[in-house]
Backbone:
């Protein structure tokens, strides 16, 4: 009888452990605080198993995105005049001199938006931003493995782009590299890439000193330019961008997240997983 009881206790403990571990693996939590690295700006802080996101509350853009080791792959700071070293960085940096300047962490030229928390569950947080002029609407969806930004309302007659302006692995260095959906080659971080990405449109950034990469995925295929160019201090990956021209005029969705691998094939698999889960 004692042995049977021991076995029952073991089985119960095992299943409790599995349930708790699974719950923790799928947990998305929302808190309110400040992003100290971004000049103590007020932020929604979304913590997931794969990343910690700091979503700046007035501008509506990410100011920091930390990996599991606490390394920030954005590196935004609002100091005026810091340019590529701080104030230009972030994601999605979408509306720039097109009926306002919105969806960028708050700096000198950012115009403010209002926000509302629409969903707050253990596996999904949704925060919606409405531009100060009411003409733009951006939706953030945070999941255990990624964040999706959707421009759900576009100002009539205007255009936008979606940018990753950041620092792979915490800094721009010769050890950095990028992949894209058009070939399986690891390109040096300072090598440009111009033109439309083939479907599915994705790119990923890494550093040889890191065991992970940051990926970006555009959910809708198109024939518009998706240029990547570097600056000495940051990436400039632009979906719907060529030089300083913007091309998006309709609602579009973009995913950003970390993958715990530096394999091209693993990124491909992750993108396919997102495609299937979004259908």
Residues:
């Amino acid at each position: 009888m004692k042995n049977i009881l021991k076995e029952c206790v073991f089985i119960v403990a095992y299943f409790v452990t599995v349930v708790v571990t699974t719950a923790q693996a799928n947990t998305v939590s929302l808190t309110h605080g400040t992003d100290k690295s971004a000049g103590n700006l007020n932020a929604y802080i979304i913590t997931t198993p794969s990343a910690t996101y700091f979503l700046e509350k007035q501008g509506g853009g990410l100011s920091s995105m930390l990996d599991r080791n606490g390394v920030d792959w954005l590196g935004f700071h609002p100091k005026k005049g810091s340019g590529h070293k701080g104030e230009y960085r972030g994601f999605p940096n979408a509306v720039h001199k097109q009926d306002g300047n919105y969806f960028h962490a708050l700096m000198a030229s950012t115009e403010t938006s209002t926000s509302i928390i629409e969903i707050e569950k253990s596996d999904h947080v949704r925060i919606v931003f409405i531009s100060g002029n009411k003409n733009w609407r951006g939706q953030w969806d945070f999941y255990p493995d990624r964040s999706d930004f959707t421009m759900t309302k576009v100002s009539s007659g205007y255009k936008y782009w979606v940018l990753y302006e950041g620092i792979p692995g915490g800094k721009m260095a010769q050890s950095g590299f990028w992949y894209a959906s058009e070939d399986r080659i690891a390109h040096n971080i300072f090598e440009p890439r111009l033109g439309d990405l083939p479907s599915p449109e994705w790119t990923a950034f890494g550093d040889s000193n890191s065991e992970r990469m940051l990926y970006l995925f555009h959910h809708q295929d198109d024939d518009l330019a998706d240029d990547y160019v570097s600056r000495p201090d940051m990436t400039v990956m632009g979906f719907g961008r060529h030089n300083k021209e913007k091309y998006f005029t309709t609602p579009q969705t973009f995913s950003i997240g970390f993958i715990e691998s530096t394999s091209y094939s693993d990124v491909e698999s992750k993108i396919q997983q997102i495609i299937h889960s979004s259908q």
About this structure: The CA atoms of residues 126 and 160 lie 22 Å apart.
